[in-house]
């Protein structure tokens, strides 16, 4: 399958654009044109929203509607222990108090990235690996800047993972140094360190551009369609943010990674 029809119908995106189609509308178009196996890969993008919506429920917050499940379906899945992988329920059942589930939620998110990356292939596998790596680097940088405990922030990570080990080795260093190959991200963090909102925008731009570079020569492919959906997510999040929310989002990334 060349995916020619659906790919050619998508307006090329640039960072800062307002997408012609919302994430919801885009997925409806995908459903009309893609196979069940294709949609299974794409559903991983929405599964992360489902996972984060568990945390939103625990906090009594409104859920993000870009998940696979609406609020009623999510509540039913949690009460019947359906839909999610067993590790999600093993995690939730370990704690009696919602506050403890929220505090330790980064452990669950970390497991999601590891499990989904192992099951994925092609661009999706690359995407999940990069997302995890970028979040680790951002966590290391922000923790060091705030004079926090890197070991505590990364306590749920595999200490033998090369990137994790490299970041942990800097726990007593006065400055943060990004892993080799991540110099561009490190420079971006340093040049925007006094402006959390600018830092968030630059980080979003960095992710948007890297994703675009990976699939720029795969126009009529499932990889391109997955990348396009991720770019729509980035742009929707960018336009939804107010100035005051920049630092909050960055701190949330740190907390949800550690």
Automatic annotation (TrEMBL):
<dbReference type="InterPro" id="IPR011992">
    <property type="entry name" value="EF-hand-dom_pair"/>
</dbReference>
<dbReference type="InterPro" id="IPR018247">
    <property type="entry name" value="EF_Hand_1_Ca_BS"/>
</dbReference>
<dbReference type="InterPro" id="IPR024492">
    <property type="entry name" value="DUF2764"/>
</dbReference>
<dbReference type="Pfam" id="PF10962">
    <property type="entry name" value="DUF2764"/>
</dbReference>
<protein>
    <recommendedName>
        <fullName>DUF2764 family protein</fullName>
    </recommendedName>
</protein>
